[in-house]
Amino acid sequence: MTSRTYNPRIKWADEVQQYLEETLGEEQVASISTALCTPPCCTCLRVNTLKATPQEVLEAVTFQLKGSWNSSLPYIHTHLPAVILPGVGPLAVDYSEIGGKEVVVSRKCGEAVLRGAPVYIPGVLACSPGVEKGDLVAVAMVLERPGSDWCGITRGTIIGSEAWQRAGPPNCTGLYIGVGRSCVGRTEMFRLEQGLAITMHSPVFRVPSAQGLEGKVMFQNLPSLVAAAALAPRPGSRVLDMCAAPGGKTTMIAQLMGDKGEVVALDRSHAKVQEIQSLAQELGITIIKAYKMDATKAVLKQASPHNQVIVTAAPAERDHEDQPSVNGHEATAGLEGGLEGGPDSDEKLGGLGHARKEGSEKILKRRKRKEAASIARGASIPQRGDMENVTSCSSPPGFPPCSFDHVLVDAPCSALGLRPRLLQTASLPYLKQCAVYQRRILDAAVQLLKPGGTLVFSTCTFNPGENESNVRYVLDTYADMHLEQQWPVLGGPGMTEEDRLRAAAAAIRKCDKEMEASIQARSPQPTDAPAMDDSAGNINKTLQQQQQQQQHKSVGESTVMVATRDSGWLSSSEAKLVQRFDPRGDTIGFFVAKFRKKEGLL
Ligand SMILES: C[S@@+](CC[C@H](N)C(=O)[O-])C[C@H]1O[C@@H](n2cnc3c(N)ncnc32)[C@H](O)[C@@H]1O
Fold it and tell me: Which segments constitute the SAM-dependent MTase RsmB/NOP-type domain (predicted)?
């Protein structure tokens, strides 16, 4: 095998592709679809300023990289408590000298490798015969088959074997992610259940690691820090983080408050609430109170004294695990998005006991992944060991209106902006469902915010239906809410109503052109024979009628209009107040809006 280029591109569902093209333009969608398959170049290491200074962290990571890193060096972010680690890639990898030995890994495993992780044993699906410990192997990843959770090969398959042939070998073209050194032989790779399988020797993307800084730093995507900073929580204030797990932004907020005041953190998943507590403990933060609660039901209703915490129907859970699941970015999985909490909620599992059991299994799995993440960064396994001390606070029934100085809604979302992602399975109705669900959380957030207080709404998607449309919804629904300037400003402006109308008009024009072309292709050719009747004219009339009908249909079916039918986007002055992070830049796709509630209107 010779050199191979890493060049995948996301394949969207047709209707989503159409919606995105109509919304953002064809070229943008093409470049976004390629960018999403790569990690952001820079990795952000948030410094826990309660335990270390950015300078101390910078010195520690720079010292560790000495001799092993010949690219750009880490630096301190100008505005945020973070050290930025510039990575490199995609690099050309030479696969010619490894004797044709290969390992095929799952997509999730591959995505983690692209962010700097090694390959762990559970991620290996297939392996060439005769791979021994210490061998160099080409690492390729395989995607799930369309409409399925399965990639077509069972873990343990031998590459080239009959089973491999029968399965129809997966198409890994463009999905070779580097050369690694095997830590175990083929038999162990499939006999063992955990442990390191391969360390990456020449990965397609090279990311610097940071070791021995547990409790002092946390890998977190930069826009997440921006969202927390935009909230501008004052020390001593009372803050609500409505969708908080695993606690990346919650802990950043507490840190910005100097660990003084109170941060109430909600999540609908019991297991995840424990993650928030565990992270707070690891970072030495004391002001966080984490509760299992459905954010849409968080407003205490006077009429129901025994207000039960009932999990409301959320859009079906999507797989949106963030890169951190293996290499520790943002500390853990599921971080930036997705409508988690539906299927793993107690009610849907048929009872609290079951959910708890499921929850602890999940916690164990996540803890293992975090440990793996630490190992990936070269750190020692975190010896928390005292999870027994991390008990879930019994949840209050809700909170009275106007209880909080600051509210963060880091909403569960379609997570279209996460990188690297090699597969997107979102449908158009799902995108719509996400937006509607977010509105229900925003409704509660507005009620819980004190007059004069600030509300930050963030998502990790570039879908305007979930971003600008929902900002429009808040502004149009609540007269006392207005947009406010954020700090720091690192993203671009939001999309305007003009953008939306332009996109819809372009979509209609495109549809018309296609229609014209198809009519022309079907028009009767001129003939020398004299017309015996008016049939040619009739045909043309029919075609014209068909064309008009189609035009109306295309107006009615413009996906931009369908997906954002019930609210527009923003005026140009409003668009300047929100931040849209373009995933084609050195970032994940992200969106932040900051509102303030006027004083004395309620
Ligand atoms: C985008 S993630 C939050 C990430 C988190 N803010 C951070 O920075 O670490 C969204 C979270 O919302 C939670 N969630 C989904 N629906 C919810 C609801 N109705 N109430 C509370 N939490 C919910 C999910 O379990 C998930 O953990």
Answer: 151-598
